[in-house]
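Possible regression after last week's pipeline update?

I re-ran a chain I had predicted before the update to compare outputs. Posting the input and the new output here so someone can diff against the archived version. Not blocking, just want to make sure nothing changed silently.
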Amino acid sequence: MASAKTVLILMGSDSDLPVMREAKAVLSELGVQSELRVLSAHRTPDQVREVVRGAEGAGVGVFIAGAGGAAHLAGAVAAQTHLPVVGVPVANGPLQGFDALLSTVQMPPGIPVATVAIGGARNAGILAAQILSIGDGQVREALRAFRARMAAAVEEKDRKVRGDG
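New output (post-update):
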């Protein structure tokens, strides 16, 4: 059964979709509801504010925000809510995401954004599920099973490499 809380996955451009779909995929695997949206901190700031301010009432428990370049989307979201925000720097342009990483991780005191690796939307989804698992035993159990599957896959690869499989 899905968590009572959802994760709102925002991206600054539809060009970020291939990366941000990974967050949605892992959340689905864990039984956590999520929604993808394209909203720009710079081109649609009023819509960002409206969506973020209404999100808690709509059942959102965590935001994931991905953007490249100056990457202000996660910070713009964090400025409008007290809910957790996970930032995903997206690689684009000449700096290949390093600019986005620094913009996302270097938030001012009092407005934190948890930040994953450049292109790390899958880990952002897992982190969002971990945050929700604090109050949701079903998500916690889904995470335990997920980790067990990862361990079993590594053990199987090890057996094959050693010639036991």
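Follow-up from reviewer: compared with the archived run. The helical segments are 17-29, 45-55, 73-78, 98-105, 121-133, 137-162. Marking as no regression found.
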